């Protein structure tokens, strides 16, 4: 003890070396570095714990007690679908030949699969919403006896009785009234297509360009009777960089020529921002199908249109475009192979859970 006091009085450290500002600064720097290492270790531990919690939630979310049997089965089916998609993406091998640079590169389409899958989160959110609604109904009841109402609803025949409302009309007039309710309006047809959740399989890069409205016309091999909003499903085949570059250049040329005669150059104007990625095997957006023209009709109406040189027999005309900022993994039917010959050219309906998830993203304020 006396030795330490003597060192302090003489300006020396405990090791006997003379004290200096450089020595103090060096010691302070080492202490600061050690503190930072401790903080980094704590942060990594918290991050690792957070990842483990997410993985635990992901693998056990179907055991939620508030899920219905249908919702639980939908979550299990969706997780199996994501598992199959990951396996197919790992087996996919796309080679991109750059003739200008004389290089050969492997093109990989990356998907991020996590516990925050929009379809699964939509099911969980719907379950929580139903739970809150049921709790609200119970809380609003004046007493528990009202849980077992004893009254029997009765129908008042004074209202809504058709035979009394049409008395005095002839048979022809009654038929005209019935026809008014039987003729479907355009809005009703659109609503029915949206309710069933129709999707159209489109190869990249056309799928992403259609979702943002840069491409508005898509060649199609057969006539289509449907009209209304369609989900755009990018097929499993990944686009090469050469295909993306050629298609983007084609769209820029059409915008420069202003072939549609629009003042602002249309959706594909020169100042438009093009997609940064072209994911395969995913829902990338929604577009409104307005018309299906034969190739002869299309060339007559759009002699320099984007599909004027098409080899297909028909052209689909789209308007009103809603792209998804984050694509949702999904494989269209009959498109599991990477060859273009397996491409399905049929509109199809997606399952209810996927349809609900996409609708909540595109229409967040919708109550349906």
Q: What is the percent of helical residues?
A: 40-55%
Q: Structural class, from secondary structure content?
A: alpha+beta
Instruction: Indicate the low-confidence ranges by residue numbers.
Output: 143-148, 158-166, 335-341
Major β-sheet profile: 6 strands, mixed
Radius of gyration: 32 Å
Measured distance between first and last alpha carbons: 80 Å
Mean pLDDT: 72
Here the CATH topology of the domain at 186-362 equals Archaeosine Trna-guanine Transglycosylase, Chain: A, domain 4
Overall outline: extended
CATH superfamily of the domain at 186-362: Hypothetical protein
CATH architect. name of the domain at 186-362 = Roll
DSSP helix count? Answer: 11
- Tell me the number of strands: 8
Strand order of the largest sheet: 4-7-6-5-3-8
Strand content: 15-25%
CATH class call of the domain at 186-362: Mainly Beta
Topology as H/E string? HHHEEHHHHEHEEHEHEEH
Written overview of the protein:
The protein is α+β, with helices and mostly antiparallel strands and 368 residues long. Among the domains are: 70 residues, no CATH class; 177 residues, Hypothetical protein (Archaeosine Trna-guanine Transglycosylase, Chain: A, domain 4, Roll). Helix content is 44%, strand content 15%. A six-stranded mixed beta sheet has the order 4-7-6-5-3-8. Strands 1-2 form a two-stranded antiparallel sheet. Strand 1 and strand 2 form a beta hairpin. The radius of gyration is 32 Å and the shape is extended. It starts with a helix and ends in a 6-residue tail after the last helix. About 6% of the residues have low confidence.
